[in-house]
Specification:
- The complex is a heterodimer of chains A (about 900) and B (about 200).
- Chain A has 19 helices and 47 strands.
- By secondary structure, chain A is α+β, with helices and mostly antiparallel strands.
- In chain A, helix 3 packs parallel to helix 4, helix 8 packs across helix 9 and helix 14 packs across helix 19.
- The longest helix of chain A has 18 residues.
- The radius of gyration of chain A is 38 Å and the shape is elongated.
- Chain A starts with 12 loop residues before the first strand and ends in a 14-residue tail after the last strand.
- Chain B has about 200 residues and is an alpha+beta fold.
- Chain B has 2 domains: about 90 residues, Gyrase A, domain 2 (2-Layer Sandwich); about 80 residues, Alpha-Beta Plaits (2-Layer Sandwich).
- In chain B, strand 10 and strand 11 form a beta hairpin.
- In chain B, helix 1 packs antiparallel against helix 2.
- The chains are: A alpha+beta (about 900), B alpha+beta (about 200).
- Chains A and B meet through strand 8, strand 10, strand 13, strand 36 and helix 18 of A and strand 3, strand 7 and helix 4 of B.
- Chain A: This is Sarcosine oxidase subunit alpha.
- Chain A: Belongs to the GcvT family.
- Chain A: Its EC number is 1.5.3.1.
Chain lengths: ~900, ~200
């Protein structure tokens, strides 16, 4: 045993030494110690110096409110006062500023989503009583407590038997230790952080038993090591059996310090004096402690180098000591309550902000409710627990019998916000090194709001979020502003998280491979096996191109394009959205949604359609198949599958409920293979034995339901997104791979999305979302032909707005760079030829698509250009920083404008 | 061709982990039905299925090897054995007659994963925010919800518990990776002693 470890008592295991390292030095503590208590046991009270002024600092608290004793462990900045000691622990003291580690956090993190009837936050006496009262009714009860052991202040109380029968026997009661409630959201949604697990709890009722934090006192040199909260001193002595000092002076504004004095004396520690701000503290307490009580007084300063050696009480009195234990009153821990949108009010009698009203289904009990006597805490907790369970449907609401406890006193407090002395040494926020002088400067500059003063002085912005300094700061502001009380100043806003939470914990297992779903088609494994380079399209992985050995992307795409235009190629088009539209009014519904008409589309035929938003801007496009009199199959772009279904449902449900039509997503029912090229008919003939594939028998924009040569049912459509002869084969998803292999065996060249883009752009087919951006009408795209003049549809009325008829709207045009090898970057801004290129230069538009074309033997692009159709034949410039590309404006179609190739 | 050309998205996955089993139920029949629940077609459909359609939200009616899941006030999913879909589609279309509604074979539109065993709920609780406690969710209950980052149709089949997790095939591989990762994790934090357990040790 070290000299600082008391010979008896404590909740540490004296038979279990624990070795650890602090700042490179080796020490030994005991199982049950925190790092802070183990350091005190080794005579170490001083920790890293302060962040900004480099002043010596010591351990101040025994809990989450610690401003000074922060340590870096495995990349995390943690309070030494809550860090459980374990063998091999290696900690480095840091002064409130952490450092990000560059190594990957390999610890597994996890999440839980649970629901309960009663959530009790805080496992002190009030919380324990509440949990027991709720749990015994059979209500689903969760008790969350941030410490390693339940008990709260009872752990630091001598002579109280800490046994809580019952909790373990209730089958629906769950006790979560080492678990901190960090966030409180609407409808009793509370987030709990437990080491490597983040609990998301939805509770019918919540009982907050979050306790209270003791406040320090503000005086000159109050930051010197050896100044410690009185409750912390008591906890170190009683719970950990360590003595932070041998000769103690207590300074207080309330009754709680007297019990501390009694416990210290009982442990054999000298208490030289109690300095009480009240002129007449309760005589019973004064008589009971039997040490000098200096009444109506306050500590005004300390002496010492790296440790307190004496305290000053005014100019005339000095008392030697090696520890100053301070109690400036207690702040109910209203953080969770305030996060729950609860309002606090200032209570003069105890000089603290206490819970008032809250719109959520919660109750606050115990010290969190400014109830400080043990018997009252237990009674309040038990009553609240029973009531919460009852309101959730369990038990009759009667509180259980409680064990008898000794009486305690809590007479009126007398806060001391400001004393005489050098204000630049009167520290309010130890982590931020902010002082009374800083606050005076803020109020002197005219700041009145506590929120402004906080931001100006940084008080309360440290890792401890003002748990110790917050209310003293408010007290000082109140005095400086001449306010009637701190209640007039009010508190700053309490925001989650209550204590710091690591990003790794928030991420849980949503990292690496599992960070975001990867969507794969039925043919994905084939694409991988054949060397596809993938691109992300939303969450989908789509083959971008299939390079052969020695080929770069550009060469692969040119080869794939050539195969599609001159031979036989194939593409996985499974990701397109698909919606079945059924009902007697299906045709009428589609007529109202699409800009063009579908009601009279022949059964067995397909038609390309366009959807606009109500503002007339292009929203989506795709091919629609008529399957039967009352059944259509619409296709959507890959990214808009869900949005189009929602759009259909919204209009049907809210505008036209009388239409007899229903929608069903079948996107993933079907795997789709586009077989493209002049060779496609011959290649598919043996695969489709029941079909006559000739142009006369199987016309463009029609489809057939048939059976493949291997017996697989298939729907084959003659649609083309390349201008070439093409067949689109749809089979049930689970036939996708085998059908793909069947087609691949004909020698078809697989191609990816890039080739698809080049082929369609050569034909001037737009891609919604690439050549449009939500500001483009069908007319802007030169697609007036798809806008019906004879029927109404969503967006039609917007086409009579003057704005959609402006001649200088951006219109889709083609661009041919003057140098056929110059590739315009997509997104490049375009300006008129002949204008000086010194800013400001009027922008006429931008390049939306740009490629190298195998068929054209050159580069080409599509662009949206203001009044572009009138510029055809003119030259535009694309200034690109170090060079300028000149391009000629053309019609947005580059290949086979007559459409002679689609029938092969 | 003699080879079975069908391939279930997870190739008949069947994995055992401590307290939990995850397997694919390949090629289930699934038919999506939409109709007015109070129209006369609803009665004809009930007769044709041999059981009334569930009208209590998020419940399932089981009849033989057909499970009818409530998806919405006017939408159900009829799940049955492999090959059942054409029969069901024909019967439902006939029962629907000319009343507004729709019948669509969506057998390949979702993969059915079966998650069962003592820890099954524990695994789901790691990524599903609805209340799966027996008091709130039990046999013959279903819900459309999020599991991890995938939309799923979740159906508790029996008290064991056995769940069906029905997910779009494109998400299946992701979801299986997620489920197996979650199944690896031992149960944490449920200590009742008041002395904490350490999930990292």
């Amino acid at each position: 045993m070290t000299a600082h470890r008391l010979p008896n008592g404590g909740r540490v295991d004296r038979a279990a030494p624990v070795r650890f390292t602090y700042d490179g030095k080796r020490y030994t503590g005991l199982r049950g110690d925190t790092l802070a208590s183990a350091l005190i046991a080794n005579g170490v009270l001083e920790v890293a110096p302060s962040s900004y002024r480099g002043r010596p600092r010591g351990i101040v608290t025994a809990g989450v409110d610690e401003p000074n004793a922060l340590v870096l462990v495995d990349g995390s900045l943690l309070p030494a006062t809550t860090l459980e000691l374990h063998d091999g622990l290696s900690a480095t003291g840091r002064s409130g500023v952490g450092r990000l580690t560059d190594s990957t956090d390999s610890v597994r993190h996890d999440k839980r989503y649970v629901h309960c009837d009663v959530l009790v936050v805080g496992g002190g006496p009030a919380g324990l009583a509440a949990a027991q009262a709720a749990g015994r009714t059979g209500a689903r009860t969760i008790l969350a407590d941030e410490r390693t052991e339940l008990g709260g202040t009872l752990l630091a109380t001598k002579g109280f038997d800490l046994s809580w029968p019952g909790l373990a026997e209730f089958p629906e009661t769950r006790v979560l230790s080492r678990t901190t409630a960090v966030g409180y959201y609407d409808q009793n949604y509370v987030v709990l952080a437990q080491r490597n697990t983040l609990w998301h709890v939805r509770a019918k009722r919540v009982v907050l038993a979050t306790g209270a934090h003791e406040r320090p006192l503000v005086f000159a040199d109050n930051d010197r090591p050896g100044v410690m909260l009185a409750s912390a001193v008591r906890e170190y002595v009683n719970r950990y059996a360590v003595a932070p000092g041998q000769n103690v002076v207590l300074a207080t504004t309330n009754d709680s310090a007297y019990q501390v004095a009694l416990d210290l004396i009982a442990a054999g520690i000298t208490v030289s004096a109690i300095v009480d701000s009240r002129p007449e503290p309760p005589a019973a307490l004064v008589n009971q402690v039997g040490v000098e009580v200096i009444t109506g007084s306050a500590v005004t300063g300390t002496e010492g180098r790296h440790r307190v050696s004496a305290v000053h009480i005014g100019p005339d009195r000095s008392i030697p000591c090696d520890l100053l234990a301070v109690s400036g009153g207690w702040n109910p821990a209203v953080h969770m309550f305030s996060q729950a949108q609860g309002r606090v009010r200032y209570e003069e009698r105890i000089a603290a902000f206490v819970p008032d009203t809250c719109p959520q289904d919660l109750e606050v009990v115990g010290a969190a409710n400014a109830t400080y006597e043990l018997a009252a805490c237990l009674a309040e907790g038990a009553a609240a627990g029973a009531r919460a369970a009852h309101l959730a449907g369990f038990g009759g609401g009667t509180a259980p019998e409680l064990p008898p406890v000794p009486a305690e006193s809590d007479s009126a407090h007398r806060p001391v916000w400001m004393v005489e002395g050098d204000e630049t040494l009167q520290f309010i926020d130890l982590q931020r090194d902010s002082t009374v002088a800083d606050i005076r400067r803020a109020t002197g500059a005219g700041l009145r709001s506590v929120e402004h003063v906080k931001r100006y002085t940084t008080v309360g912005t440290g890792l401890d979020q003002g748990r110790t300094g917050g209310v003293p700061a408010i007290g000082v502001i109140a005095e400086l502003l001449g306010a009637s009380s701190p209640g007039e100043v009010g508190t700053t806003t309490y925001r989650p998280p209550y204590t710091p939470v690591s990003f790794a914990l928030l991420a849980g297992r949503d990292r690496g491979e599992l960070h975001d779903p990867i969507r794969r088609t039925a043919m994905h494994s084939w694409h991988v096996a054949h060397g596809a380079v993938f691109e992300d399209v939303g969450q989908w992985k789509r083959p971008h191109h299939y390079p052969r050995a020695g080929e770069d992307a550009q060469a692969a795409v040119l080869r794939e394009c050539t195969a599609a235009r001159t031979g036989l190629a194939m593409m996985d088009a499974s990701t397109l959205g698909k919606i079945e539209v059924q009902g007697p009014d299906a045709g009428e519904f589609l007529n109202r949604m699409y800009t063009n008409a579908f009601a009279k589309l022949a059964i067995g035929s397909c038609r390309y359609g366009m959807l606009c938003r109500a503002d007339g801007m292009v929203f989506d496009d795709g091919v629609v198949l008529r399957l039967a009199e009352d059944r259509y199959l619409t296709t959507t772009t890959t990214g808009n599958a869900a949005a189009v279904l929602d759009w259909f449902e919204e209009w049907q449900q809210t505008e036209w409920p009388e239409l007899r039509v229903r929608f069903t997503s079948v996107t993933e029912q079907w795997a789709t293979i586009a077989v493209v090229g002049p060779g496609s008919r011959a290649a598919l003939t043996p695969l489709l034995p029941d079909l006559d594939l000739s142009a006369a028998a199987f016309g463009f924009m029609t489809f057939r339901d048939t059976v493949l040569c291997n017996g697989v049912p298939a729907r084959v459509a003659r649609v083309s997104f390349s201008g070439e002869l093409a067949f689109e084969i749809n089979v049930a998803t689970w036939h996708g791979l085998s059908t793909w292999e069947l087609v691949a065996n004909t020698g078809a060249t697989p191609y990816g999305t890039e080739t698809m883009h080049v082929l369609r752009a050569e034909k001037g087919f737009v891609i919604v979302g690439q050549d449009t951006d939500g500001t483009v009408t069908p007319q802007d795209l030169g697609m007036d032909w798809i806008v019906s003049k004879r029927k109404d549809f969503v967006g039609r009325r917007s086409f009579s707005r003057p704005d959609t008829a402006r001649p200088d709207r951006r219109q889709l045009v083609g661009l041919l760079p003057v140098d056929p090898d110059d590739l315009l970057p997509e997104g490049a801004q375009l300006v008129a030829g002949g204008v000086p290129l010194t800013p400001p230069v009027p922008m006429l538009g931008h390049v939306t698509s740009s490629y190298r074309s195998a068929a054209l033997g050159r580069t080409f692009a599509l662009a949206l250009v203001a009044g572009g159709r009138d510029l055809i034949g003119r030259e535009l410039l694309a200034p690109l920083g170090n060079r300028v590309i000149t391009a000629t404006v053309t019609e947005p179609i580059f290949y086979d404008p007559e459409g002679t190739r689609r029938d092969g | 061709m003699t080879v079975e050309p069908r391939r279930s998205p997870l190739d008949g996955l069947d994995v055992h982990r401590e307290g939990v089993r995850l397997r694919e139920l390949p090629f289930p029949s699934q038919v999506d039905l939409r109709l007015d629940p109070v129209g006369t077609a609803a009665n004809r459909v009930a007769q044709s299925l041999g059981t009334p359609l569930p009208v209590v939200p998020n419940t399932v009616v089981v009849s033989g090897d057909r499970h009818t899941l409530w998806l919405g006030p006017d939408e159900w999913l009829v799940v049955g054995p492999d090959g059942d879909a054409p029969v069901v589609v024909r019967a439902l279309r006939e029962a629907l007659g000319t009343e507004p509604g729709s019948v669509v074979d969506v057998s390949a539109n979702r993969v059915v994963l079966e998650l069962s065993g003592a820890r099954a709920r524990d695994v789901l609780e790691q990524g599903c925010s609805i209340d799966l406690h027996p008091r709130a969710f039990g046999p013959e209950r279903c819900a459309q919800t999020l599991l991890a980052r995938a939309n799923v149709l979740l159906y508790q089949v029996n008290e064991m518990p056995t769940y069906w997790v029905m997910v779009r095939p494109s998400f299946a591989e992701y979801l299986v990776s997620w489920l197996l990762d979650a199944a690896r994790c031992p149960r944490v934090g449920a200590d009742r002693s008041g002395r904490g357990t350490d999930p990292s040790s």
